[in-house]
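subagent[fold] <- orchestrator: predict structure for attached chain, return tokens only, no commentary.
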Amino acid sequence: MKTLLILFAALLAIALPTHGADSAGPVSTEKSSTDGRPVARSYVLKPNDVVLVTVFGEPELQAREKIEADGYIRFPYLEKVFIATNTVDQAIQKFEKLLKDGYLVHPQVNITLIESAKKTVTILGFVSKPGPYPLDEEGIPILDAIGFAGGISNLGTLNKVTLVRAGQSKPQLFKLQKMQDDGQALPKVYPGDRINVGERTF
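subagent[fold] -> orchestrator:
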């Protein structure tokens, strides 16, 4: 009999649900996941990341968007919001501030990273093989990146190279050949950057 009572108690303990497992409330982004990896609120958002932005208790205020090359995403009522180069926490604060301005009293925003952008650098213009190329390293010489695309073509020149940083729209112009001849340090490129090699003047 004693053995049966112990067995019954053990089965009852297994059957009972854990207290608080179904508690309501907004989901925390502290342990949001992407590609099976945990993502902290300190994660820095970048172009081509896919995010889900939701507002607790406001089902019509949500958007699943890929961050555009210029760093913006679209969101109901707010149109376009710049979030690239922001951490998840900074982006949440930005959305909450914007929504407080004439929309909601106490918005509770959650941002989940659905898919992390692949690390690439894009080389366009007068190169042999223009297009995006994988870039797993941080900060490689710009000439090495141009080499990914087979180097400049017969019509290209290293003295008309523009570089657009990830999350920015303003291009920087570099005369790489002149800089190299003068012994100046050449810029480095990072994932998400875009390089455009200009046409040689005849």
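orchestrator: received. Logging for downstream: The domain at 28-115 is CATH 3.30.1950.10 (wza like fold). The helical segments are 2-15, 88-100, 142-148, 176-181.
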